[in-house]
Specification:
Elements: H1 2-7, E1 23-26, H2 34-38, E2 49-56, H3 57-62, H4 66-75, E3 80-82, E4 87-89, H5 94-97, H6 99-111, E5 119-124, H7 126-138, E6 144-149, H8 152-156, E7 163-168, E8 171-178, E9 183-187, H9 196-201, H10 203-213, H11 215-229, H12 233-253, H13 270-279, H14 286-305, H15 309-321, H16 338-347, E10 353-358, E11 361-365, H17 370-383
Parallel strand pairs: 1-9, 2-3, 2-4, 2-5, 5-6, 6-9
Antiparallel strand pairs: 7-8, 10-11
Helix pairs in contact: 6-7, 10-11, 10-12, 10-14, 11-12, 11-15, 13-14, 13-16, 14-15, 14-17
Bound molecules: nicotinamide-adenine-dinucleotide and zinc ion.
């Protein structure tokens, strides 16, 4: 035995780590359905679950009782200890750009002596979820994160995801980790204060995931886009739930939750989106940039992958019916194409861009023809009714 060991110097051992996803849907989780939330916290050795709560201040502007409600619910629940007052963070992309925010989060976690069995509850849009998620993932190499996404986008997409990140070196999501949240609660009431603009933003990710994985859902979105834009409850919540479940299935059953392979199939349209967000200095919301990116890569799929014109036209029309942009003048700036290299670098290895051969039939390509991409951008401008010969830029 010891002789064999002496001669063997390479040990290549594959191992798997079980992950567990807890997903809940509620109508009013800080009201009558608080028990759904409460049940997610397991008591630790001292018989209490210790937790901190961080809230996106955008919500508080629309619901001034929210912080008091959350405090009251957690404080009166036996077995739960709120270790400090509910904290607020300014929402939106700015929160991901400020290193002091991460320091504040880590300091508060340390001041409260949270450990790996403690919980951080975050209630907010995708930017606040990402930031709090990142700090929670690196403190003691990972505390338990309970996410309550409060935008349609963060419910429909990032909330169930296993990623978090902040912006660094002026680059989007440069600093971050993969970490499965302890639980995700999608609550309807928390969406009520959203502006119409932010409400519509989440549905570009729904169109994206439908185009990639579920043609029937894509047709549903095409038919119901105008109702969703008008915030009709039934189609909006159906679309959000369907989108969440498609994203979740990809993560839990797709075989590559931590993106070890080169392809990032859920990132259809995202090389454009990430670059547009940066070059417009985040004037465009992520959901708006995704809408434009999906339109561009759909046009390019039509020009290079035989995607039927009908699907491309339905995609442009559904995004427009959702009152989302499919065009921005920064698409004319050649700096956009740097987004391809940045996208490659983020993953490493060969450039891999997911395109479409048909609705529900994605394909990965490793090379983008810039001339055809310029033509795709031109095509989108045509469907957006933009006159490119006009001097307005
Ligand atoms: N980690 C991931 O897998 C992943 C996936 C997709 C997107 N993202 C990230 O998510 C971010 C975008 O998130 P977003 O679209 O949710 O927007 P956001 O977090 O930027 O929020 C937009 C605005 O809405 C406000 N707000 C949030 N909830 C509200 C509510 N219920 N009522 C009123 N105002 C509210 C916020 O304060 C903010 O001003 C981007 O940084 C993007 O990179 C991450
Ligand atoms: Zn996205």
């Amino acid at each position: 035995m010891s002789e064999d060991l002496g001669q063997q110097n390479c040990f290549d051992i594959e191992f798997a780590v079980p992950q567990f996803h807890r997903l809940r849907f509620t109508q009013d989780c800080f009201g009558s359905e608080f028990p759904v939330l409460q049940d997610l916290f397991e008591a630790s050795v001292n018989q209490t679950a210790r937790l901190q709560v961080w809230v996106d201040s955008g919500l508080v502007e629309h619901d001034s009782d929210l912080v008091a409600n959350i405090t009251q619910q957690f404080s009166q629940t036996p077995g739960i200890e709120l270790t400090s007052p509910v904290q607020q963070l300014a929402g939106g992309e700015i929160v991901k750009n400020e290193p002091e925010v991460i320091n504040r989060l880590l300091q508060t976690i340390d001041d409260d002596n949270l450990d790996r069995r403690s919980y951080v509850v975050v209630v907010g849009g995708g930017a606040v979820l990402d930031t709090v998620g990142y700090a929670t993932a690196i403190a003691h190499r990972g505390l338990r994160l309970v996410r309550l996404p409060t935008t349609t986008l963060s419910q429909a997409d990032s909330g169930v995801g296993v990623k978090n990140a902040v912006n660094w070196f002026g680059k989007k999501n440069w600093k971050g980790t993969f970490a499965t949240p302890w639980a995700v609660v999608n609550d309807r009431k928390l969406l009520e204060g959203l502006s119409d603009r932010d409400f519509r933003c989440g549905f570009s990710e729904a169109v994206k995931v439908a185009l990639l994985k579920d043609p029937e859902f894509f047709y549903y979105l095409c038919e119901n886009a105008a109702k969703i834009a008008a915030r009709e409850s039934e189609p909006s919540h159906h679309a959000i739930k369907k989108s969440i479940l498609l994203h979740l299935k990809h993560i839990t059953r797709g075989g590559d939750p931590f993106e070890v392979r080169q392809a990032r199939p859920l990132d259809f349209g995202h090389w454009v989106a990430h670059k547009l967000e940066a070059v417009t200095n985040y004037r465009l919301r992520h959901g708006e940039a995704v809408s434009i990116g999906v339109a561009v890569d759909t046009a390019y799929s039509y020009l290079t992958q035989h995607l039927p014109l009908e699907i491309a036209e339905q995609t442009f029309a559904s995004l427009q019916d959702l009152e989302l942009p499919i065009w921005d003048f920064s698409l004319k700036d050649e700096v956009l194409f740097e987004g391809l290299e940045e996208f490659r670098q983020h993953l490493g290895g060969e450039l891999t861009i997911t395109l479409l051969q048909d609705a529900g039939r994605p394909i990965d390509v490793h090379h983008i023809k810039l001339a055809a991409m310029r033509e795709a951008i031109q095509m989108v401008s045509y469907y957006a009714n933009i006159d490119l010969s006009s001097p307005v830029t």
